[in-house]
Design brief:
Helices cover about 45% and strands about 20% of the residues. With about 450 residues, the chain is an alpha+beta fold. The longest helix is centred in the C-terminal third of the chain and has 28 residues.
Length: about 450
């Protein structure tokens, strides 16, 4: 029998729309297809959850953005008419005042989940990222605000040693059960408490980032794993991989948040509803499991438990790492502090950066590599790093040695100044000392 019609392939009217998109907006049909596929994957994750995890539907306004072209692919219209619909995908251009990163952001009258293109090719990794970033869009509604404390102590020898020991105990707790798991949880909490006793601000700063990035990553793992046991296996593997991180200050919570949260899922049904912006996940788990607190005591007491997790070898390895790292820190001090520098005030700042490339620098702040900052004075693109104060009041970059050189460009950075702003090289007219970006009078 000869068929009278054929539905194989792309319908002609859809193809015309996509060809028009390619001509009018410089897009390919494949780009539109991949964007739609990502939105469908995100919606499927949310639909399977049906609001059970957090009491709120995860799926909502979402945009995918190319960092170079700044082209937007969105799943819905904006509130200011800036996007154009093309076959169910809304396209437009992100203005230079906004940074392209994986985050939640307000733009054109809408609260968006933003994701930086390209997304991971691996479907599982992409799913975790989508769920992670969708959680960031709703976290304010959960009264768990975004936070980005420095956690500089986690770049120190002791900070790293006791964080890794906590992780090793957590991995054991995830991979075992019964009394052995409970003992490992107790060890993890003990190492955590001892570490925090060494650094005055550690508890508040660690908790803040764990509630921010840690719960987002937990959401990604919990909602995209085939089962709870596979979620725990993934979290245990992530802990092991995180041990080799060059710096943990801004990235540790991605590793530590899911284990504590997944263990809470085993022992406390309603823990998520009892979260506040000052919660400590470890303390909540200890209470849920009925584990009594122990005084941390001195190092000998802790070492007696830590040796079971390879502490002596770890301490020696971290000592060698710290010695090698000092040369890196010395070079950063020369570039960002001792040499000619240009300081930028931060008042209405937005910043995009790679959380795996943040290096604390003494008590001054942290060097953020591959960063982009926007503020009243304009846009700074700093591929080779920018020093940002711990209180987020200023940013500092290495300046050209001679004031005669182009003042909106320096080693590893470019500065686009807004109208009414200028660069002052400092008191010496022939040489930079401590230049400033300031509003011209």
């Amino acid at each position: 029998m000869t068929p009278t019609s054929c539905n194989i392939g792309t319908p002609w009217n859809v193809l015309v729309v996509l060809l028009y998109a390619s001509a009018a907006f410089g897009l390919s049909p494949e780009e539109v297809r991949l964007a739609r596929q990502s939105f469908e994957q995100a919606r499927a994750i949310s639909d399977r959850d049906a609001g059970r995890l957090w009491g709120i539907e995860l799926y909502g306004p979402m945009m995918l953005v190319h960092p170079d072209s700044r082209r937007i692919f969105a799943n819905q219209a904006d509130g200011a008419g800036k996007l154009t619909e093309l076959d169910g995908v809304f396209v437009g251009q992100l203005p230079a005042s906004e940074n392209v990163s994986n985050t939640a952001m307000d733009w054109a009258g809408v609260r968006w989940t933003m994701l930086r293109l390209p997304l991971p090719q691996d479907s599982d990794a992409r799913a975790r990222l989508l769920a992670h970033e969708m959680w960031h869009r709703i976290q304010d509604r959960l009264k768990l605000p975004m936070a980005s404390p420095a956690n500089a102590h986690l770049d120190s020898h002791d900070g790293r040693v006791w964080m890794i020991l906590e992780w090793r105990a957590l991995a054991r707790a995830l991979q075992t059960g019964g009394a052995e798991s409970q003992k490992a949880v107790k060890d993890a909490a003990l190492f955590r408490r001892y570490r925090r006793s060494l650094f005055p601000r550690a508890a508040a700063e660690e908790n803040a980032l764990e509630l921010n990035e840690g719960l987002a990553e937990y959401t990604g793992v919990a909602l995209t794993s085939p089962s709870a046991s596979e979620a725990r296996a993934h979290a245990a593997q992530a802990l092991q991989s995180a041990e080799s991180s060059e710096t943990m200050a801004r990235s540790f919570a991605y590793a530590s948040g899911p284990p504590w949260a997944l263990l809470l899922d085993l022992h406390c049904d309603d823990w998520r509803s009892r979260l506040s912006d000052s919660s400590d996940l470890a303390a909540m788990l200890q209470d849920a499991m009925g584990i009594e607190w122990e005084e941390s005591g001195g190092k000998p007491f802790n070492m007696s438990r830590a040796e079971e997790y390879g502490a002596p070898v770890l301490i020696a390895a971290e000592k060698q790492r710290a010695q090698k790292k000092e040369a890196v820190l010395a070079e950063l001090r020369t570039r960002f502090v001792a040499g000619p520098v240009l300081r930028l005030p931060l008042r209405n700042m937005k910043v995009g950066f790679d959380p795996n490339r943040v290096q604390p620098l003494d008590n001054l702040g942290s060097v953020y590599f591959a960063a982009r900052i926007t503020d009243d004075w304009g846009v700074l693109t700093a591929d080779e790093g920018v020093l940002i104060a711990n209180d987020w009041t200023w940013a500092q970059i290495p300046a050209p040695a001679e004031s005669a050189e182009l003042r909106t460009q320096g080693p590893g950075w470019q500065l686009e100044l807004s109208d009414g702003w200028t660069v002052d090289p400092g008191p010496d007219p022939d040489r930079w000392r401590h230049g400033r970006v300031l509003r011209s009078r």
